[in-house]
Structures are given as structure tokens and as C-alpha cells.
């Protein structure tokens, strides 16, 4: 009996034969597909069948790429937003600075025009800081004795009287504003030339005209200007405007409240006027001599 090889050990065609067969089939399919489009329908069917597998294979990478692009774009947008916000803040600061410089330039031109309107010398000064005492209305300016500043000189801004030089140092001077409690300015009503004196009531407080009869010819809205009779302030400088007049039957005097016309708390540059006049000494009141007692006869 002839022995046969078990099926498990049976071998097909040799590998070389298989290679030749499959090579011929591949070449035939390539040539047929190139000339006759034989595999188009097969390719379509296979692509439809394999599309879910392709989607499953590529979608995780697409999701990762999209997520990475999103966060990268988000970071770029946040950085761009911060940069634009910073640029906007810088532009706003520059615009505010330019506006402040324009206002300051306008004020300086107005002071220069005001300075030219006076026949006597005057000096432009800059405010350094407020006085140390919060209960007084004082300013420290950047000109002193070396610049020719002297006590008693009037200080004005573009609108009206601010105050008076009361103390000088070599490089600085102290100005007592018209709102100070210790400051008084001889004024007159511009409408009827009525002379009086206006007093300060303290920092950030109005001014007051005192010791005037209830029937005095002063009205609300009247403009008070310097009378010039003290030799310190030139006549005609704006000082205040009457806000209200309180007339009480129980008081012998009217209370006249006024608002300063100068921007006493909003200026940076001021003008010091050298307009003090040398006045003759105040006349001495003669001392009355006591009458001699008549001797009786």
C-alpha cells in the first residue's frame, strides 16, 4: 500500500509560481483598468465599504488637529485683545495728555495776553503745592526774592484776583488766597461804583461782604471788582459775583454771600503783578487836648 502525505503537510504551488501568477494578474488588471476602466465600479464599491473605517481612522487626528488649532487661535486672540487694550489705554492716555497740554497752552496764552495788558512789570509763576495748614487757603509758588517777588504783590489768573503774596523765600513765595479767613480785598460794585470790603471765609468756602445796611444797593448777580484804594490791587480786577443777599429783620446788617470769579482751586500758572503804589502815610489823627479847668473867681 502506497503511503500518502497527510493533508496538513500538503503544499500548493511553489512560491515562485505564485509570484508569477499574481504578477500576471496584477499587470492584467492594471492594463485593463488603464485602458478600459474595468475597476472603477469595484473601486467605488470598495470605497463605500471602507469609508467608515477610513473615517474612524482619520477622525481622531482631525479632532486633535481642530482642537489644537482652536486653542492656539484662542490664545492668539487673547494676546491680540490684550495688545489692543494696552494700545487703547496708551492712546487714551496720550489723548488726555494732549488735551491737558492744549488747555494749559490756552491758559498760558491768556495769561500772556493779560500780562501784556498791564503797563507795569509782572511775572508768571507756577504753583508748587498747597499750604501745609488745611484750615487756611495758601499756595506755594516757584518764584521768590531772587526773582524780584515782594510781599504785598497781587496774584491773579486769567479771570480775576487769586490772592496776595504774604511771605517770600529766596526761591519760593507764599500766596494767601482771597478765600482765606485772614484775607480781605477792597472792592466796589461794578454797576454803581459802591465801595466795600470783601472777606474770605475759608478754603472751599464763598466770600462775604459784611457790615452793609439791609437796604444797600447791591443785587444778586452784581459783579465786584477791585477798587484800587489800598494800593495793592489795580482798580478793575474781577473779584467775585454776588450769589445771594440775606436780609433779616433781627439783624442790623445784610449778609451778602459771593462766589470768587477766579479759579482759585483749579489753576496751575498764575501772574504776580508788580503794581503796588507808594502811598503817602495815613494822616495822623490829632490828639485832643483836655480843656483847662476854669478857675473860679
Description:
The chain has 297 residues and is α+β, with helices and mostly antiparallel strands. The chain has two domains: 19-117; 122-273, Rod shape-determining protein MreC, domain 1 (Thrombin, subunit H). It contains two helices and twelve strands; from the N terminus they run ααββββββββββββ. The protein has helices at residues 15-36, 40-117, and strands at residues 122-130, 138-141, 154-156, 161-168, 173-177, 184-189, 195-200, 207-212, 223-226, 238-246, 254-260, 269-273. The strands form two sheets. It has a six-stranded antiparallel β-barrel. Strands 6-7-8-11-10-9 form a six-stranded antiparallel β-barrel. The longest helix has 78 residues, at 40-117. The protein is rod-shaped.
Q: How do the helices and strands line up, and which of them pair or pack?
A:
Blueprint: H1 15-36, H2 40-117, E1 122-130, E2 138-141, E3 154-156, E4 161-168, E5 173-177, E6 184-189, E7 195-200, E8 207-212, E9 223-226, E10 238-246, E11 254-260, E12 269-273
Antiparallel strand pairs: 1-2, 1-12, 2-5, 3-4, 3-12, 4-5, 6-7, 6-9, 7-8, 8-11, 9-10, 10-11
Domain Rod shape-determining protein MreC beta-barrel core: 128-273
InterPro entries: Cell/Rod_1, Cell/Rod_MreC_2, MreC, MreC_beta-barrel_core
Protein name: Cell shape-determining protein MreC
Amino acid at each position: 500500500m502506497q503511503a500518502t502525505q497527510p493533508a496538513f503537510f500538503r503544499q500548493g504551488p511553489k512560491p515562485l509560481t505564485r509570484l508569477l501568477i499574481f504578477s500576471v494578474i496584477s499587470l492584467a488588471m492594471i492594463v485593463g483598468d488603464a485602458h478600459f476602466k474595468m475597476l472603477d465600479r469595484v473601486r467605488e464599491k470598495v470605497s463605500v465599504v471602507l469609508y467608515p473605517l477610513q473615517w474612524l481612522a482619520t477622525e481622531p487626528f482631525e479632532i486633535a488637529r481642530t482642537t489644537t488649532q482652536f486653542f492656539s487661535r484662542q490664545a492668539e486672540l487673547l494676546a491680540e485683545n490684550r495688545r489692543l487694550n494696552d494700545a487703547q489705554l496708551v492712546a487714551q492716555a496720550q489723548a488726555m495728555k494732549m488735551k491737558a497740554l492744549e488747555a494749559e497752552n490756552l491758559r498760558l496764552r491768556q495769561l500772556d495776553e493779560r500780562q501784556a495788558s498791564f503797563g507795569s512789570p509782572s511775572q508768571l509763576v507756577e504753583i508748587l503745592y498747597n499750604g501745609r495748614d488745611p484750615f487756611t487757603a495758601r499756595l506755594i509758588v516757584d518764584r521768590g526774592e531772587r526773582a524780584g517777588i515782594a510781599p504785598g504783590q497781587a496774584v491773579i489768573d486769567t479771570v480775576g484776583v487769586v490772592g496776595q503774596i504774604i511771605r517770600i523765600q529766596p526761591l519760593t513765595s507764599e500766596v494767601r488766597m482771597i478765600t482765606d479767613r485772614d484775607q480781605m480785598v477792597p472792592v466796589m460794585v461794578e454797576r454803581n461804583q459802591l465801595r466795600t470790603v470783601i472777606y474770605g471765609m475759608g478754603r472751599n468756602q464763598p466770600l462775604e461782604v459784611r457790615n452793609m445796611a439791609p437796604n444797600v444797593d447791591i443785587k444778586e448777580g452784581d459783579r465786584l471788582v477791585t477798587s484800587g484804594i489800598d494800593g495793592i490791587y489795580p482798580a478793575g480786577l474781577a473779584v467775585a459775583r454776588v450769589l445771594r443777599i440775606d436780609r433779616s429783620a433781627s439783624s442790623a446788617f445784610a449778609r451778602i454771600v459771593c462766589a470768587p470769579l477766579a479759579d482759585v482751586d483749579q489753576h496751575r500758572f498764575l501772574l504776580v503783578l508788580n503794581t503796588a503804589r507808594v502811598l503817602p502815610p495815613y494822616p495822623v489823627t490829632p490828639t485832643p487836648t483836655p480843656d483847662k479847668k476854669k478857675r473860679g473867681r
